[in-house]
Amino acid sequence: MCGRFTLTVNPEVVQLAFALESVPAGYAPRYNIAPTQPVLALTNEGHRRATLLRWGLIPAWAKDPTIGNSLINARSETLAEKPAFRHAFRRRRCVIFADGFYEWQRLPDGRRRPMYIRLTSGEPFALAGLWEVWQPSHSEEALRTCTIVTTRPNAFMAPIHSRMPVILDRAVVDDWLTPGDVDPLELMPLLAPLETLPLTAYEVSKAVNSPHTDVPDLIRPLPASPPPDRLL
DNA sequence: CCAGACGTTGTT
DNA sequence: GTCTGG
DNA sequence: CCAGACGTTGTT
DNA sequence: GTCTGG
């Protein structure tokens, strides 16, 4: 099974769906957001202005920022203890908006097939995330980074993957974004996979995770083959 | 005490 | 920054 | 995750 | 084969 994923997002659609006060100007719809690139996010700073965060969390204590290249996911099961994440778990939570994500399914013959997953409704959703601020030097501007929380797969995702991103129910997004300190244990239940989430998987026409395929035509989801219901 | 790690996924 | 291992 | 690189010397 | 960058 594959694990990391890339996202797609349309900021204007997200703004409407989540009643955001604003989204960053000039952030055009994206069809292939890979780690290290900017993602559309809402932090627990107590307002509803979406912001851009670099995907790949760099802890405040990091000397070498390339550590962010590996901290692109955080396991929900161990968030509270991991030195790289526990501070952010207590103080700096965020949601990362997406209207779909790619996962690479391993086939019996060992080949990998990119699948595009989204809500059956097509609506955008919020992924649980953590964020941090990293100061390169006194003279340089602070870098805001984030990581996406993962969990075990629900029944729909299990045939495709061993892990999945934590998709937050609309009703608990504001709980996850409570400003300031929160008892981490109270938040753990929010990170369990949603079994009832109506998801649909699509086969993608070709590999999408390349700088050269960042165009809508190549990733527009095709009817799944086999259809999603046969993946179960 | 200091030095070094601090992560995930997937694969073997 | 904080913990672990030597 | 996949795609692509995989290097040194010297100069700014 | 393994690491880095996207």
The CATH class name reads Alpha Beta
Task: Enumerate the spans where pLDDT stays under 50 for 5 or more consecutive residues.
Answer: 209-216, 222-232
**Beginning-to-end CA distance, first to last residue:** 16 Å
Mean pLDDT reading: 84
Order of helices and strands: EHEEEEHEEEEEEEHHEHH
Radius of gyration: 17 Å
Tell me the fraction of residues in β-strands, as a range.
Answer: 25-35%
CATH homologous superfamily caption: SOS response associated peptidase-like
User: Structural class, judged by helices and strands?
Assistant: alpha+beta
Fraction of helical residues: 10-25%
What's a concise summary of this model?
The chain is an alpha+beta fold.
Description:
With 232 residues, the protein is of the alpha+beta class. It has a single domain, classed as hypothetical protein yedk fold (Alpha-Beta Complex), CATH 3.90.1680.10. It is 12% helix and 31% strand. The protein contains 6 helices and 13 strands. It has a 5-stranded antiparallel β-sheet. A 5-stranded mixed β-barrel has the order 3-4-10-9-6. A hairpin with a 5-residue loop joins strand 7 and strand 8. The longest helix is centred in the N-terminal third of the chain and has 7 residues, at 11-17. The radius of gyration is 17 Å and the shape is globular. It binds 4 DNA strands through residues 1-6, 32-37, 55, 57, 59-62, 66-67, 69-75, 78, 82-85, 87, 102-104, 106, 112, 114, 147, 150, 162-163, 207-212, 214.
